[in-house]
């Protein structure tokens, strides 16, 4: 095989809680992670020139070792003791710096894709260990199905897929640094914590309303305060009929959950005309 194509799905957090800041500076989290049908497409090729050669449809992305694809490819070549030249073409659709793990999912797809292209035969367990060296969300993006995520994000418990529904995902014209949000979060003074255990139970019981009524993200205390437009998008989604709406990850992307595709499409028209968002997607949950 000389070439392989792979989809890298973005994620949302149905629930995101931060339990405490650890002495080493990392935050201990408790999150419900869900892949969605907004994805990047990566094409991996073996090339004769040694090195890792990345090209992308988005000018703003780094193409050198600062790209998480480069880190993942480098780690894989090192692990396999291979000097094979690799080119990766990235078609980026997932909003950047948006709280949808766009970089992490590209890194995960690179580990999975190169393991096949280079016939590495590395086990999923070892790929998960390699993934966490790149970023805390990378193991989840290797798992690619609904999961409870604990520790710094690397302790994963697979859950059943939630009931089918439709999503509207909108990103305002701002970029948010994950580092800024965590640095400004005061985990020990948080007054409200989402009921993650209750949400897990609702997922197991296939109770969509039980899931949506427990949606919560403690990082909103930092990001929504700084960028009120996030709160405005949530309001607009609720007004347009969402069962609930929430910021994903460290933001600024907001997702709304709708009982049907028709409702999500109607809301899409309203929100597209509101001027609040720059990127807008109709999507659904993905479980591989
Ligand atoms: P998370 O949800 O994990 O916090 P995010 O959606 O907030 O991630 P990303 O889109 O992953 O953020 O990108 C954050 C930064 O990482 C970008 O500003 C970009 O320069 C850098 N980056 C490196 N590699 C990639 C990649 N393959 N795709 C997107 N961004 C990348």
Walk me through the structure.
The chain is an alpha+beta fold and 288 residues long. The protein contains 10 helices and 12 strands. Strands 1, 2, 3, 4, 5, 6, 8 and 12 form an 8-stranded mixed sheet that branches. The protein has a 4-stranded antiparallel sheet with strand order 9-10-7-11, covered by helices on one side. Helix 1 (68-80) packs parallel to helix 2 (102-117). The longest helix has 16 residues, at 102-117. The protein is globular and about 55 Å long. The structure holds adenosine-5'-triphosphate (ATP).
Number of helices: 10
* Total count of strands: 12
Q: In this structure, how is the largest beta sheet organized? A: 8 strands, mixed
Q: Decide which structural class fits the backbone.
A: alpha+beta
Q: What would CATH call the architecture of the largest domain?
A: 2-Layer Sandwich
Bound ions, cofactors and other small molecules, one mention each:
adenosine-5'-triphosphate
N→C terminal distance: 23 Å
- H/E element sequence: EEEHEHHHEEEHHHEHHEEHEE
Quickly name the level 1 CATH class of the largest domain.
Alpha Beta
What's the shape? Answer: globular
């Amino acid at each position: 095989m000389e070439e392989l194509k792979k989809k890298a799905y973005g994620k949302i957090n149905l629930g995101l809680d931060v339990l405490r800041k650890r002495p080493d500076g990392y935050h201990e989290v408790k999150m419900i992670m869900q892949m969605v049908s907004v994805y990047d497409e990566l094409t991996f090729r073996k090339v004769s020139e040694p090195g890792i050669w990345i090209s992308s449809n988005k000018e703003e992305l780094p193409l050198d070792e600062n790209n998480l694809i480069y880190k993942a490819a480098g780690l894989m070549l090192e692990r396999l003791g291979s000097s094979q030249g690799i080119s990766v073409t990235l078609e980026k659709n997932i909003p950047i710096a948006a709280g949808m793990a766009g970089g992490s999912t590209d890194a995960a797809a690179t580990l999975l894709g190169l393991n096949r292209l280079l016939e590495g035969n590395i086990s999923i367990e070892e790929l998960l260990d390699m993934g966490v060296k790149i970023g805390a969300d990378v193991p989840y993006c290797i798992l690619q199905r609904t999961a409870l995520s604990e520790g710094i994000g690397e302790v994963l418990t697979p859950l059943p897929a939630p009931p089918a529904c439709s999503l509207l995902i909108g990103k305002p014209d701002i970029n948010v640094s994950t580092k800024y949000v965590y640095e400004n979060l005061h985990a020990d003074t948080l007054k409200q914590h989402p009921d993650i255990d209750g949400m897990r139970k609702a997922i197991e019981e296939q109770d969509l309303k039980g899931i949506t009524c427990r949606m919560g993200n403690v990082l909103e205390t930092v990001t929504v305060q700084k960028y009120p437009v996030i709160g405005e998008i949530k309001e607009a989604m609720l007004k347009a009929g969402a069962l609930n709406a929430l910021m994903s990850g460290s933001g600024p992307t907001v997702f709304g959950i709708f009982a049907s595709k028709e409702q999500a499409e109607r809301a899409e028209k309203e929100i597209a005309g509101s001027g609040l968002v720059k990127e807008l997607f109709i999507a659904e949950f993905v479980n591989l």
